[in-house]
Structure formats: C-alpha cells, structure tokens
Automatic annotation (TrEMBL):
Catalytic reaction list: 5-hydroxy-2-oxo-4-ureido-2,5-dihydro-1H-imidazole-5-carboxylate + H(+) = (S)-allantoin + CO2
The protein's name: 2-oxo-4-hydroxy-4-carboxy-5-ureidoimidazoline decarboxylase
Enzyme Commission number, as recorded: 4.1.1.97
Keyword vocabulary terms for this entry: Decarboxylase, Lyase, Purine metabolism
Spans through the membrane: none
Keyword Methyltransferase set for record: no
MF terms (GO), sorted A to Z: 2-oxo-4-hydroxy-4-carboxy-5-ureidoimidazoline decarboxylase activity
UniProt organism field: Glutamicibacter bergerei
Length: 164
C-alpha cells in the first residue's frame, strides 16, 4: 500500500493495516490520529516516537503475538505471515534448532517471557549469541532491550506495509 492510500483509509481500515506491525492500541491510535503524512519518514518517525514509550503491559501484550525464535508461527494471520518471513533466512539445521530451543527455554525460565529479537538480517549464530548475552542482563535492562527489539520489528513491518 502506498502512503497516499494509507492516508485516505478509514480509521478502522488503517488500524487493520497497522495491527500486524505492533498490536498495541495506543501505538495504532497514535499513528492513525496523526494522518495525513507527507512522507514515509514522517510516518516512521511517528511510529518510532510512539513505540519509544511502550509500557510493560503493552510490551507483554505484544509479545503474546510473537513465536519463539526458530519456531514457525502458526496460523494464517498477517502477523504470522510476517513472522515467518522475518525468520525465513535463518539457517536451521538440527543442531541450530536444538541450540535455539535450549536458549529459548533458558531465557523463558530467567525472564518469564519469550525471547524477542529482530530476526530479519541476522544469522542464527548472531541470534544465539545475543540470547546468551541477554541472559546476563538485569531485569530492567532486559525489559528495555525487549521494548527496543519490539519497536525495531514494528518499524520494519510498518516500513514494509506502507511504501512510497
């Protein structure tokens, strides 16, 4: 969809385009209410500013829509399709799959939430290394990293959803 078409959608239609990017009502409402946008840069800046202030509750709710890294997202939703596309380049053999599974379990035991990282453009080895590094984070630092990764994923999806 191009920016002009996005600007002209009804509020409900625009929200439906944004929801797979980041299923947080405040974020969606901020972007929809700020239309019309004169450029994609302006749209992305609005998305970034709104994502910068994700609360812990918003982050937790959004994480519910993300599969474990290395696992295929189930379903036919737009978010599931996006997730599968973002993880499509991961080189997953049996060894890497086992390592990611163990890393996911360790992370979930430590932080009681799914390990989230922007997978697009990253190798399996880099993702594993980041998970291991982040296991040593203090809770507050990890909460910030999760919010940053969620924001990065949302902006990547937003950029891909609305073209020039």
């Amino acid at each position: 969809m191009n920016l002009e078409d996005f600007n002209n959608l009804s509020q409900g239609q625009a929200a439906a385009i944004l929801r797979p990017c980041l299923d947080v009502e405040r974020w969606i409402n901020d972007i929809v209410a700020s239309r019309p946008y004169s450029s994609n840069d302006e749209l992305l800046a609005t998305g970034y500013r709104s994502a910068e202030t994700l609360s812990e509750a918003e982050t937790a709710a959004a994480l519910a829509h993300h599969p474990r890294i290395g696992e295929r997202a189930d379903g036919n939703s737009a978010a599931a399709h996006l997730s599968r596309g973002e993880q499509a380049d991961l080189q997953l053999n049996d060894d890497i799959t086992a390592q990611l599974s163990a890393a996911n379990r360790a992370y979930e035991a430590r932080f009681n939430r799914v390990f989230l990282i922007r997978a697009a453009g990253r190798s399996s080895a880099e993702i594993l290394s980041e998970c291991e590094r982040r296991l040593g984070n203090a809770d507050d630092i990890e909460a910030r990293e999760v919010a940053e990764q969620l924001s990065a994923i949302a902006l990547l999806r937003l950029e891909n959803a609305i073209s020039h």
